[in-house]
Amino acid sequence: MIFFQLKLRKTWERFQLHLPQFKTYSIKELSIFKNTVKFAKVELAFFAVPTDNFYSKKLTMRHQTTIKDIAKELHISKSTVSRVLTGNPNVNEETRKAVLALAQKLDYQKNIFARNLVTHKTNTIGIIVPEFMSSYFPKVIIGVQNIASKAGYNTIIAQSNENYETEVANAKVMMANQVEGLIVSVTKETNNFDHLIAFQRKEIPIVFFNRICEDMHVPKVVVDDYDGAFRAVEHLIVTGKKRIAHLAGPDNLSISRRRLNGYLAALRKYKIPVDEEIIIPYDLKIDKVKTLIQQLFNLKCPPDALFAINDPTAIEAIQVIKSMGIKIPEDIAIVGFSNDEVSGLIEPSLTTISQPVQKIGETAADLIFKLINKEINPNSAIIKTLTTELIIRHSTVR
Amino acid sequence: MIFFQLKLRKTWERFQLHLPQFKTYSIKELSIFKNTVKFAKVELAFFAVPTDNFYSKKLTMRHQTTIKDIAKELHISKSTVSRVLTGNPNVNEETRKAVLALAQKLDYQKNIFARNLVTHKTNTIGIIVPEFMSSYFPKVIIGVQNIASKAGYNTIIAQSNENYETEVANAKVMMANQVEGLIVSVTKETNNFDHLIAFQRKEIPIVFFNRICEDMHVPKVVVDDYDGAFRAVEHLIVTGKKRIAHLAGPDNLSISRRRLNGYLAALRKYKIPVDEEIIIPYDLKIDKVKTLIQQLFNLKCPPDALFAINDPTAIEAIQVIKSMGIKIPEDIAIVGFSNDEVSGLIEPSLTTISQPVQKIGETAADLIFKLINKEINPNSAIIKTLTTELIIRHSTVR
DNA sequence: TACTTGGTTGGGAACGTTCCCTATCTGTGG
DNA sequence: CCACAGATAGGGAACGTTCCCAACCAAGTA
């Protein structure tokens, strides 16, 4: 008796063979499967082991209960079992009970892959966000999941880490998982939208929020950035500030442009001249803030107020300014945008624009499901604008 | 000509029928499919519509390219195409190129559901966290995803919202999606672990982190809570504090117990008597903090230091204490645990224990892949303990 | 010539569902 | 008795892969 193992595909399998004479055998004589051994030959390894060390090939296979097992056990057809499990009413009450009971007993779990394969329904939506270090995106996700789970849908979450390539990869994963809808806020470096247009082409609903792609004709959820920015800057003006700087976000994000426009409009309304010198372009990289702030204060005529594109930036600005020994809000008042958790905790607390973050997620999810159910036109390009609120704290008023 | 629509399964389909005479027709005469109409009968609805309003049943079917399409186009078998696409080397170079080119051209996307169905490999791991409002869990997730994507795996993220039922539901989703491994930090109310033991039974690797289940014999990743707590309290003692209170976490979380033990050990080392009165049980619900703090200061002998179970709690405590007009750190010093983002920003900045959060995620993911590849024993109950660091800030030292 | 051998390809079962269509039985009204 | 109906069940194709096994051809090798 000779024992040997060979590598079939990935795993080593063991076999035993009874060889009657001591002689040289041909591969063919040895082989169990005619050609397989040929292929696996290089991996073939003879060795001797005690017989009781052998394990059956099937032994380690953990079998998951299937519809067929239930059918066999109850002597009915798998069609009937399927009918019970999918809630089709055309089943005898007793049969139904028996199936349900046995399913419970055998711990039956529907194989969603088989199901998806035939129905093309995955009951899954996806959401791609640029990060979840700030409290904003997690809150949006909670909103989305609230609505999705009510609709019996799962949510696949992906974060692109503000990296375009990762975003593309995430989109591919979403596609491969056949999400029925996709909610997206793009990275700050995303300028090419092919990976998202692919969804449109396949008629998979997309909804944007926060960082939107204006060129794509799909529904979007935003807050009224223009109005928020306007009121933030108006507040600064009303409290007596004359020279208001702005740390502006990247130009390719419409959100930056809208906030910038709100800023400009407020200045215009109060007849304050616009000075390009104190509108600082900024790429949302938090570690750049220090340099930019120092730059502002090196001007011959430094600003007496700062409107930052978002809260993390404003918070970093506060740190920097405090460390420079400049007084907030007396020497310079600061406003952010978002009302992050931290804003109320720092010293001085940050005046900011709050947005209904969870509501944004819920609204986006609502739209997705309306699209999935064809209640609205996929190309409708609805823009849901949620309102913001000015939260006045100590960074502008003592 | 009569038009009608009937509901087959979920959707209304339209049909047209040429009826030669005006008379009463039997269902059978009308029916297109012998029995189907019988079933759908109750939903049957006759109506007249203009013919050109009709749409073809197949028209809206968007066809996704399959392996078969490629095979047909190139006049080769789907086996060969599959071989190319799975990287099997036994294919002629020209055939390979042709297949790859056509796949590209037709925008072929592998159907992962069909693939999973036959291979039982999903290339997916899951992670369940209690929340992601604090920066802790998001950072862990980033760590996990780093490792997972390197291994070619996708990560399904779920958050239980500190709710036991949601956690169970999440576990079900993970199971249904046939994750190959699961990383978990349980909710504060989880006492029953059946939903996780189910994974063990199916031999799906589990790794715990942070909030672990001590009774389950699986690998775990934790930080040295005992040591961290010890050093935090030691620091308070060394800076001259004599009466150190502790806001202790729920008893069912081992993390709370370990931190409590570290606290007790430090007191013991410095021969400070333990006073049960100032070890306050606390259920991690942030809105309870106010009452508990007030309670502490109503004691005839209030504490001069506070060790809070985690940073959010410590931060809330600082807010409450400040609002009471009590001085930090002179009247009471405060230490947290975690080094959340906010800790360095608030006033006074919080002394705390920092942990290598992203590393925790990476370690957990590493373990999962070692388990998946059977490099370590699934029941080994390895505990990876990562070290912490004391970060001294102004909440303890002016 | 008669084998091996290597390189390449094809046929077809299997994975676990859903669902179309058919079949059978029983009951009912004319 | 017939025609039809309602209730229930079964057979089997289809979904898109993977992969076992067999087959074929050309080139060595004895």
Name its key features.
398 residues; alpha/beta; 434 Repressor (Amino-terminal Domain); Rossmann fold; 6-stranded parallel β-sheet; 4-stranded parallel β-sheet; 15 strands; 38% helix; disordered N terminus; DNA-binding
Can you walk me through this structure?
Two copies of one chain form a homodimer. Chain A is an alpha/beta fold and 398 residues long. Chain A has four domains: 52 residues, no CATH class; 44 residues, lambda repressor-like DNA-binding domains (434 Repressor (Amino-terminal Domain)); 132 residues, 3-Layer(aba) Sandwich (Rossmann fold), CATH 3.40.50.2300; 131 residues, Rossmann fold, CATH 3.40.50. In chain A, the strands form four sheets. Chain A has a six-stranded parallel beta sheet, sandwiched between helices. In chain A, helix 9 links the parallel strand 6 and strand 7. In chain A, helix 4 packs across helix 5. The N terminus of chain A is likely disordered. Chains A and B meet through helix 6, helix 7, strand 5 and helix 8 of A and helix 6, helix 7, strand 5 and helix 8 of B. Chain A binds a DNA duplex (30 and 30 nucleotides) through helix 4 and helix 6.
Biggest sheet character of chain A: 6 strands, parallel
Separation, N- and C-terminal Cα atoms of chain A: 92 Å
- Output the structural class of chain A: alpha/beta
Known CATH architecture of the largest domain in chain A: 3-Layer(aba) Sandwich
Global Rg of chain A: 32 Å
Order of helices and strands of chain A: EEHHEHHHHEHEHEHEEHEHEHEHEEHEE
- Overall mean pLDDT score of chain A? 85
Number of strands of chain A: 15
Count of helix runs of chain A: 14
